[in-house]
Amino acid sequence: MTTTAIRKKLADYLKVADDKKIKAIYTMVEDEITTGENNWDANFIKELNRRSRQFKNASAKTYSWEETKKAAIDNIKARKK
Fold it and tell me: Which residues contact 14 (CB under 8 A, 6 or more apart)?
């Protein structure tokens, strides 16, 4: 089932569901609703755009999976000392 179909089914269901079920569903997603997924300030968006431009024009420093994995392992080993 597509996301669009699921959204429609949920919207239709919410129109007729009893209060207890509405409250239960709301409780499950309350944190996401109240914090907002796109609660980004202008500086954060500016930084995302800067990094995106760097990545697109190949001027961003990137790491291979092997480099990333080694750095993580080295970091864990250093913490154990």
Answer: 22, 25
pTM score of the predicted model: 0.41
In whole angstroms, what is the distance from residue 72 CA to residue 24 CA?
A: 40
> What whole-number distance in Å separates Cα of residue 17 and Cα of residue 19?
7
Which sign does the torsion angle of CA 36, 38, 41, 44 carry?
positive
Contacts for 48 with CB less than 8 Å, ≥ 6 apart: 40
The per-residue pLDDT for range 66-80, each reduced to its tens digit, is 999 999 999 999 998
Enclosing H/E stretch for 12: helix 3-16
Helices (H) and strands (E) counted in the chain, each on its own, are 4, 0
Q: Hey, what are 66's tokens? A: 């092997």
